[in-house]
Amino acid sequence: MVNRVIVGAHYGLRGWMVQRVSAVVMALYVLLFVAILLFARPTNFGEWRALFAGQAMKLATLLFVASLILHSWVGMRDILMDYAKPTGLRLALEILVAVLLAAWLFWAAQILWSVG
Amino acid sequence: MLKRAPRPKYLDVVRIRLPVPGLVSILHRISGLGLFFAIPFLLWLFQLSISSPDNYVRYRAVFAHPIAKLILIGLLWALFHHLFAGIRFLLMDVHVGLELQRTRANSVIVLVAAVVCTIACGVLLW
Asked: In this structure, which topology does domain B20-125 adopt according to CATH?
């Protein structure tokens, strides 16, 4: 028999951890991105687009967006748990947020890989 | 025996005097919510900027509009506040700056740094 404990301080630890790991990933990407901007100083369409031409930049940016999506999910879930008290309303809003976040992740991937 | 003045207990939002760390905390939540709603707007701008030379011109036009600039500067504040307050929370996780005096001081630093960075970037953008 699996002994599942559904109360206690550890419950929600995974969300807490996701929030911190994704935060660090995003902070590192922001630093990297500002450094690239200061180094390359793109001033026109061609130079701006060229920044995202390489596979490494595409993957780093997608990792950033994925972290943003996970981070937003945990944060929005926290907010909904605090203010949307009726279970039905909360469930509906959580589903809406999850669907929006998933769509935004695919949209970001589509934008990135449309850059030749 | 020591007599204490009766202390009011209420959870009336407009009457609570929020301590500075509390202000940093609620602004962390509000800025996070704002950034969530900004995601599709920013993805759209990113797509405009990178999909074709014509769209790049449209992106520049959107960016040049004063209202768009004001919104972006507001989002910059949200980003800076969320980032700095987040770094403060990560430091608290590893027990840095937990004493009352320090936690008040680093809360003020977070608030001021976010505003200063926003003004600096806002001047550059405008």
From this structure: 3 helical TM bundles of succinate and fumarate reductases (1.20.1300)
